[in-house]
Amino acid sequence: MADLPLHDQGDFADADRGFIAKLSPAVVRTADGRVVWDGDSYDFLQEDCPETAHPGLWRQSRLCARQGLYEVTSGVYQVRGLDLSNMTLVEGDRGVVVIDPLISTECAAAALKLYRAHRGDRPVTGVIYTHTHVDHFGGVRGVTDGGVPILAPAGFLEHAASERVYAGHAMTRRAVYLYGRALPRSPEGQIGCGLGMTASTGTVSLIPPTLDLTRTGQEETVDGIRMIFQLTPGAQAPAEMNLLLPDRRALCLAENATHNQHNLLSLRGAVVRDARAWARYLTEAVSLFAGRADVAFASHHWPTWGGEAIVRFLEQQRDMYAYLHDQTLRLINKGLTGPEIAEALHMPPQLEQAWHTHGYHGAVSHNVKAVYQRYLGWFDGNPAHLWEHPPRESAIRYVECLGGAAGVVAFARRYIDENDLRFAAQLLNHAVFADEGNKEARDLLAEVYTRLGHGAENATWRNFYLMGALELADGIVPATMDVTSPDLLAALSVEQIFDSIAIRVDGPRAWHERLAIDWHLTDLGERHRTTLCNGVLVQQRNPGDDAADLTLRLTKEQLVGLLAGKGVEGVEREGNTAVLQRLVAVLDRPVPDFAIVTA
Ligand SMILES: [Zn+2]
């Protein structure tokens, strides 16, 4: 375990600074009574750190579990701890502008109500989405019905919608592990995710932005509030921006600099992020904004006050990402592979002495592999790894070579005794993948995962290990989250809608199908053709005049309805309507609760 700067208690003072009021009880429900947020379930974090948690993570969770309304500076407030993210409220001439309205409309409404109870019934006069992740826009209908300026970085809508189009179902399943959704909240169970406690589970909404920010240095005024923007695409999110409130001397850092090491690649799966760009944006933030802010706040965690402290914080965050990037590439060019670099690379001690460089959400170990992945991909160059058997087939053979399952379990016990839990997990994983009915191996692996989880500094590692242990003991936890949000579906572009159909085509079933459908989007004035051939659904805009098998005239809303499984009533059809059924017949369904810790 790295030395922890336990003497440094400054974060506790900053996390409490400006406190006005709590939400009590800290429970948010839907209209029909379902609990979507329960902050009080984390009250146990007030106890001393138990044996079942890493002291650094326990400390971080204790800070993240604080909840309520806080004054950041005159006219700038935050509601923290009522969802994974923070809602920031900036008071203008007529009302209040909301920066990042949380994940769920229910939590956003509760946060606004708490603010209004102490600051008066100010109308919401504008909204800012700092970036494309759902914890920064999903609650918007909890604060406004629209009709106000909504500002977002260029590319926001496309990327906000696209994350769910392609690998969304797999990400949703893995997010159950990432957040430890099925774990009890207890000293032995879920104690947060580093960035916050967990994600709320209410109604996700989206109102499209009315104004895209397109360049760094752009200035806008909403409700008398001046804002200067810095665009930071391709770092923490594909579209993101920082902003300065010059008249408040306050700097919003979105999610580009928070009080932990962030992910270059989320363990739930994502397109890998660019550490080099991330570091450069932080350098740019210092040069643009140093001396112009007395407080810096983000959409997670607590603010940092004081001009010097802000610059130190930004430079340390910058150096952390730059070090990860540059040192990984240095070692790559000496021939080291991802797992080798992950073992060899350590943060400089002076950076480790800053709490906010610690890996509570991201981690040096998996971030290094993300840098490797970005530049070199999955293959490490070793031909032995080019054509390995898949996990279950490998496992069966390893178990046979090790003298059968009993032998593997015996070896595993030896490594457990030597406290080499990592190798014990590898061995027992083979035993379980070879025969998932092997209860002894399952139980022992669950025990090993539990111990690895309890020792982890990183909250998402802890959650993955403990979820693995839970599913080994109890079986797969069925998916309960409904991932479809009508607003998010409506935000899809026509191209994204056809993409989402194309990735559901069951290739082999469609090998011998051949059909063409023209889609005339009457409200958009667009013509698209989808052609199914060779097991591939190809889309083309403005097709030629040759006849398709079927022509449909419909609105985008009707197209979204078709995608959501509604029928074709009201859709004008011309040609062979049977081809639509033939297309639907070759569409596959995602599996929402696939196995992870068993074969
Ligand atoms: Zn976030």
List its salient traits:
6-stranded mixed sheet; Metallo-beta-lactamase, Chain A; Serine Threonine Protein Phosphatase 5, Tetratricopeptide repeat; Nonspecific Lipid-transfer Protein, Chain A; 599 residues; 8-stranded mixed sheet; alpha+beta; 3 domains
What does this 3D model show about the protein?
This protein has 599 residues and is α+β, with helices and mostly antiparallel strands. The protein folds into three domains: 9-328, Metallo-beta-lactamase, Chain A (4-Layer Sandwich); 384-474, Alkyl sulfatase, dimerisation domain (Serine Threonine Protein Phosphatase 5, Tetratricopeptide repeat, Alpha Horseshoe); 492-585, 2-Layer Sandwich (Nonspecific Lipid-transfer Protein, Chain A). The strands form four sheets. An eight-stranded mixed β-sheet has the order 1-4-5-6-7-8-9-10, with helices on one face. Strands 11-12-13-14-15-16 form a six-stranded mixed β-sheet. Strands 19-18-17-20-21 form a five-stranded mixed β-sheet. The structure holds zinc ion. Zinc ion (ZN) is lined by residues 85, 133, 135-136, 255, 299-300. Zinc ion is lined by residues 85, 133, 135-136, 255, 299-300. Residues 84-300 form the Metallo-beta-lactamase domain. One of its GO terms (biological process) is dodecyl sulfate metabolic process. Keywords: Hydrolase, Metal-binding, Zinc. This is MBL fold metallo-hydrolase. One of its GO terms (molecular function) is linear primary-alkylsulfatase activity.
